[in-house]
Amino acid sequence: MPTVAIVADIGNDLAYEAPVDKIVEWVERALDRLAIHDARVALNNLPIESLRGVGTARYYAFREVLFPNCKLSRGEIIDRAERLSERLSQLAVTREISAFSAERGWYGLDPIHPRLASAGEIWSRMLGALSSVEGIAKLVRPSAAMMLTYRRLRALEYAHFGVVRRAEQPALRCLDGTRISIY
Length: 183
Hints:
By secondary structure, this protein is α/β, with parallel strands linked by helices. The chain has six helices and seven strands; from the N terminus they run E-H-E-H-H-H-E-H-H-E-E-E-E. The longest helix has 22 residues, at 74-95. The two termini are 20 Å apart.
């Protein structure tokens, strides 16, 4: 079976004050690993327009609740996000991979996580970018049992309440031979 990958949630580390160059290095390392497997890749870029639309009061409220250790100003985080987005766009061109940018209308009060109502459209477009026929992929909804299985999948390394943990990969092996790994 062919290897396909979606490289996503890249900008989250900006709120943990990771430098843009370091984040790009991590993405390049992931892309290098995927290239070994001749993977077809879609790169999910940052929701820049949504981030730019966040006012000062909302920015500081979200920062205090979601990222209390972050001390970056709104201007600093927007500047870093714009630089990261540009570097990711350049990386996609250089590596000849599909780049996916979200639309501002897909976001609500939370500027980095799309509204649930937009999920189908987003996944259709990302999976469409990976299909052999470019475009929008038709989604098939999994059963409730499979949804629970998917929600329990863990990345190779993840933090839970500040404790770094590891999970075996692939995170899921399906009967049809499909394997899902999360890094």
